[in-house]
Structures are given as C-alpha cells and as structure tokens.
Amino acid sequence: MTAAILNLNRPLAVPRTTDRLLRQQAALAEFGSFAFGESDLHKILTQAVRICAASLDVPFAKICRHRPDKNDLIVVAGCGWNKSVIGRVVSAADESSTQGRTFATGESVIVKDIAKSTGYDLPSFYAEHGIVATVDVLIKGRGGPWGVLEVDSATARKFDRYDIVFLTGFANVLAEAAATAEQIVGLRAVVQQTQSLLAQKVNLLAARDEAERLQHELQAELLRTARLNMMGQMTAAIAHELNQPLGAIGNYIAAAKRTLASGDPEAQSRLPSIVGKAAEQTRRAVDIIKNLKGFVEKRDSARTSVDLGDIVRRSLAFANHGALDECVDVTLRLDERLPMVTIDAVQVQQVLTNLITNSIEAMRPFDKRELLIVTERGEVGFANVTVQDTGPGLPSEVRENLFQPFVTTKDTGMGLGLNICEVLIKANGGSMSLVDGLAEGTGFRFSLPLAEAS
C-alpha cells in the first residue's frame, strides 16, 4: 500500500461510533488539563505519547523534535519502543521520511502498509518492532514547526479522518503546552539567576562595608602610628618651643620675688603686670602641650578657622629646629591677605612638618640648600601651599607611584609619609600634587578650603 496525504476537505466516508469520539475528546481534555498544569517538558511529552497510543488503540507512539542547528528530527519521547530508539534515532527533516515530509510540508502523512511503501527511507527499527501502519501529524509551535507526532500500529490499520482530526488537535495542545513549559523553565531560570545576583549583591555590599570598616580602622591606626614615629624627630622642636615660655615664666616669677622683697610701693604696683605676663606664658606652654597631645592621640578631625601663615610658621619651628646648623636657607612667601582656612590644624601641621623634614633631609648631601614655602590663592574657594627644595629631585619610577604606600627614596624609610600626607589633605577637603617643571629639586603643592568664599 502506498503512502497518502490526507485531504481533510473530502466528505467523511467512514462514520465512527459516538463512544469512541467521546473517548478521544475526553483523552484530549485530560491531556490538556495535565499539560498546562505541568512545567516539566519531558513529563508532558511522555504523557502525550501514552494517551495518543491508548486513544487510537495502538501500542506505539513517538514524538520527534526538530533540531534547527542540525536540521534533523530526533525522537525525544515514545511508548512501546526499546531503549535504542528514544533519544537516539534521528531522521532528516526533509521528504525522505514520513516524519520529515510532514515537517517539511505541514501535511499529515499516512502509510497504511509499510511493506508496500516505496516512497520513504524507513528505519530498520520499524521492522524490529513489527510496524505495519503509521501516521504523522505536524506539531506547530508559536514560532513555526516544532516537531512531529507519530502513532504506529503492529497490525493492519486504516487511520481515517477522525484519527487525523484527533491527532491534529492533540498536536496543537501539545505544541502550546510545550511552549508554555519552556517559557516557565526560562522564567524560572531568570528568577533563579536574579535571586542569585541579588544574593551576590547582598554579599558584595556586606563585604564592601566590612572592607571599608577595616580600611578606616587601618587608616586611623596608620595615622596614629605615623604620629608616634614622628615624636622622636619632634622632641627637640617641642623642647625648643617650651623652653621659651618656661624660661619667661621663671624670669617673671624671679622679678616678682625681687619686687616683693624690695618693699618699694612703686615697684610693687607693677606686680599685677608681672604676674599677668607669667600667666600669659603659662597659657602658651599649655597650648603647646595640648597641640602635641592632639597630634599624638587617635582622635576625630576637628576643623576650625585658622590662619594659614601661623600654621606654616609653627610647622617650620617643629621641623626646622636643626636647619640653621645644616645651613638651610629658608624663604617664606606668605600671602598675609589670605582669608582664614577651615582645617584641622594639627593634621595640616603634620603634613607641613613631614614635607619640610623630607626637604631638609633630601638637601643634606648638597652644598645648595634652599627651602621655599609659599602660601597663595588657588582655585576659587581655596588657598595653595607650596613646599619646594633644591634637592636631587625624584626618580621617574617614584613619580609614577608617588602617593602609593611603601614608595620611598630613603634607604631606611617605610614610604608612608607622602601617602599619609595625601590622606590628611583629602580629609581636610583639599588635594595634593607634585609640582611639575622645576629646574631643580622637588616641590609639593596642596590646597585647603578657605573659610569664606573668595
């Protein structure tokens, strides 16, 4: 018997019993209820072939899915077949096979007697399973042909129009259920990926917060350690600073004692003035000690409006106590018209002390030792401070990583000074950079916010 393409427009020739039609419709409804409540595509396809085979009273059914990348049809589900068929048998998606012709033309194909069919390449497993008759209908997906639904009989069987109507309706439901299941799987994958990304985001934010906390703790401890390390260098400067008010206090007390001992009423009338001057020097000594204490202690930044020139002079006194012995020629060009700056005076003093000390040490091997400190207006709302020396300058490899930690030109240095200086200047609302284009030596410039708009 030869193959035939069914013409659905031809009048029905063989009536079917009402009971069988109702049973097929019930099977279709049962499958639809199951398929649209299930998201596992494999379960949907497996249930589909079982219901189809049972509804048409045949032992075999299978579903072939199209693979666009290979343009073939592979058996993805079936009932009645041995293990060598499902997931293994592949046929071309062209008119060389029954399922290929259905897929290529969209028409249902019926082979009433395989033994008499000469128009198709029938696979060997048909004979192994004793297949006599077969029928294929197209599974048409939302975007085009999805695959082929096929039922097979091991006995002579005439598939009529009612069978084709049932299988076609079944294939339509199957196509929609498969598309829905794949869409659900895709949505679940998106949801899982989104949940995974959200979890990663939460973990990353927590890790970032912890890293920032540790960084702030390390930075605070590093600044405190740097201040402690500088104490050795500053001891002589502090002693020099305190010697003056303490010596003056001693002189005023001695003068007060002599005045009291003299018994001279005119001389004793000057006692309040002498005691007041001693008190003034005492306050000066207290301020020096308080400044040193704040410099060493770990504490929060306290920004106030101060005179920038005064900060420069105080820093120079700290750092330059030995400069005269080393014949360093210090030049100050301080703009006395500058408004006050809003800074943490102790932190900025630390920066200036570090820069000045570095310059003095850098110039030590040279005969020409000139240190220039300049204050001037910078960009709108800022004042600039420049510290420049006539030392050897900086090597190119140091310039490239200048403010990174552990970069230094000193044999015994840790390379933390400039890094700490930049951190402190940024903490005070300014910025710090290397002065380019100098004919000799090295210069650093940093900006600080003015207390009032310029």
Key descriptive features of the protein:
454 residues, Beta-Lactamase, Heat Shock Protein 90, 14 strands, rod-shaped, disordered N terminus
How would you explain this protein's 3D organization?
This protein has 454 residues and is of the alpha+beta class. It folds into 2 domains: 3-188, GAF domain (Beta-Lactamase, 2-Layer Sandwich); 300-449, Histidine kinase-like ATPase, C-terminal domain (Heat Shock Protein 90, 2-Layer Sandwich). It has 11 helices and 14 strands. The strands form 3 sheets. It has a 7-stranded antiparallel beta sheet with strand order 1-5-6-7-2-3-4. Helix 1 packs antiparallel against helix 2, helix 8 crosses helix 9 and helix 9 (345-363) packs antiparallel against helix 11. It starts with a strand and ends in a 5-residue tail after the last strand. Residues 1-6, 10-16, 405-409 and 411-416 have low confidence and may be disordered.
